[in-house]
Design brief:
Number of helices: 13
Shape: globular
Strand order of the largest sheet: 1-2-3
CATH topology of one domain: Cytochrome-c3 Hydrogenase, chain B
CATH architecture of one domain: Orthogonal Bundle
Largest sheet: 3 strands, antiparallel
Number of strands: 7
CATH class of one domain: Mainly Alpha
Order of helices and strands: EEEHHHHHEEHHHHHHHHEE
Helix content: 40-55%
CATH superfamily of one domain: Cytochrome-c3 Hydrogenase, chain B
Structural class: alpha+beta
Length: 354
């Protein structure tokens, strides 16, 4: 249905402008029909839906195990977070307990995911406001995190590393040293970003008081994540409904009350620091043990086990070719992704497909 904005009688001198469907950064596409009075937007109508890809129906056509590859593509900046939300939902559906080591590695990697997602946000936000150098700095740091993902999973972005019941495989030797090196550099780099932007008069003029959203409006609009917390609402799923062992970690939930673009920037900057804090704790306290649960009807067996056990080979073959069959039921699982609350509502009819 076409989106239009009719002129108000007596105010024909105002300009109607169709902006889009496009965006300077191209990845978050929408269309806005704007009414302008000089350089001031006095009315706007949004035309959304350009990013709808039909994931819900696609999930129904694949087995639970195959669906993990789809979650990578829901948000290409947070594939591991998407993997985690989906796997937690399936694990809740079948009542599966994940080994502690796998849970902590999941936390460590998803917090690195949060940092690299925020770096892309900051870099693209800065270049749109005229700070091109920040874009290059942020992508420099993001590259180091992507190399960790590649080392652990074999893929920089579409990782598909988490599995129902744990992880695809044990991370390779030396991966924690790589993590330690990267997180050792990031605090100074974040301070560098703040020195360039936080008190910069041009940056402040273009962000302070701009796009202000009240706490009431944020809740009414179903905002979540940093955008909600920048409005003064302290809501973080990692704290309110802990998952994957987050209740064992000590960290703060940054909030602001201004609700403007500047507040959203400050919240994300502090969130990166808190994510580094969580990663350090995970490295120090990382438990020993397996990275996948022992549940042969639902969880892929270890590769070494398949070399000596015909039963393990059969279970692997059946899960890969036919899929497993969870009990009939429905679950809802939510996580705190870098961009906000990500929830999976999953219904099982007892077949290999949701």
């Amino acid at each position: 249905m076409p989106i239009t904005l009719e002129k108000i009688p007596g105010q024909e001198e105002k300009v109607i402008l169709s902006m889009g469907p496009q965006h300077p950064a191209t990845h978050g596409v929408l269309r806005l029909v704007l009414e302008l009075e000089g350089e001031t937007v006095v009315r706007a109508v949004s035309d959304i839906g350009y990013l709808h890809t039909g994931f819900e129906k696609s999930f129904e056509k694949l087995t639970y195990h195959q669906d993990i590859t789809l979650t990578d593509r829901m948000d290409y900046l947070a594939p591991l977070s998407n993997n985690l939300g989906f796997c937690l939902a399936v694990e809740k559906l079948i009542g599966l307990e994940v080994p502690p080591r796998a849970q902590w590695i999941r936390v460590l990697l998803t917090e690195l995911t949060r940092i690299q997602s925020h770096l892309v946000w900051l870099g693209s936000h800065a270049i749109d406001l005229g700070a091109m150098s920040m874009f290059l700095y942020c992508f420099r740091e993001r590259e180091e995190i992507l190399r960790i993902f590649e080392m652990v999973s074999g893929q920089r972005m579409m990782t598909s590393y988490f599995r129902v019941g744990g992880l695809a495989l044990e991370p390779p030797p030396g991966w924690l040293k790589r993590v330690e090196k990267v997180i050792g550099q990031l605090p100074a780099r974040i301070e560098e970003y703040e020195a360039l932007l936080t008190r910069n008069p041009i940056w402040m003029r273009r962000t302070v008081g701009i796009g202000r959203i009240s706490a009431e409006d944020a809740i009414a609009l179903s905002l979540s994540g940093p955008s909600l917390r920048a409005c003064g609402v302290q809501w973080d799923i990692r704290k309110t409904e802990p998952y994957s062992g987050y209740e064992q970690f000590d960290f703060e939930v940054p909030t602001r009350v201004e609700g403007d673009v500047y507040a959203r920037y400050l919240v994300r900057m502090e969130e990166m620091r808190q994510s580094l804090r969580i990663v350090r704790q995970a490295m120090v306290g990382l438990p020993e043990g397996p990275v996948r649960a022992k549940a042969p009807h639902f969880v892929l067996p270890d590769r070494e086990e398949m070399k000596t056990s015909i039963e393990a080979l059969i279970y692997h073959f059946k899960i890969v070719t036919e899929g497993f069959r969870p009990p009939v039921g429905e679950v809802y699982q939510t996580i705190e992704s870098p961009r906000g609350e990500l929830g999976f509502y999953m219904v099982s009819d007892g077949s290999p497909r949701p």
